[in-house]
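User: I'll paste a sequence; please echo it back and then give the predicted structure.

Assistant: Echoing your sequence first, then the prediction.
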Amino acid sequence: MEDKKYVSITKVYTKRGDKGETDLLGGSKARKDSLKVESYGCIDEASSFIGIARYYSKNTVVKERLKAIQNKLLVLGGLLASDIKGREMMKDQISEEDVKLLEKYIDEYNEKLPPLKYFILPGDEEIAAHFHVARTVIRRAERRIVSLKSEEADLDPLIQKYVNRLSDLMFVLARYSEEVENKK
């Protein structure tokens, strides 16, 4: 999978954030405590936790899929970190096909699992615990995006739909890694 380049960063610090604001793709600014910044910050955090799960996974197919999801989260985070002008500049978007792909993965892994008969207490297997942390961070991102949607009516509803499915996938992968992968 080709890595895409959206920005060229030559200097890590700009000092513009020292006053509590950050630049958005498109040219406008946002307060660092805004719902917008909180939303894409949660997506960034979720990608980091997915990266930990990817690192610990022993399943090469799962690893490849998680990396592709992390790349899609870069797109999603970029959309959230943009103003209207910035979103128009972005080549990649979240599509209905992206959502359907997550649903395909959910169904594929869930089909290999026994019916869920009890609540799950994370922590029995390390890899499953990492998936559960990713799931909870994604759920937080979803809550922030729901709040952001009330402020930004033009926010693509597929963003929220994708994030919702992604948390479901993390739940199923936690169960799968614990109940199927670790019993091989």
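The first strand starts at residue 21 and ends at 23. The two ends are 29 Å apart (CA to CA).
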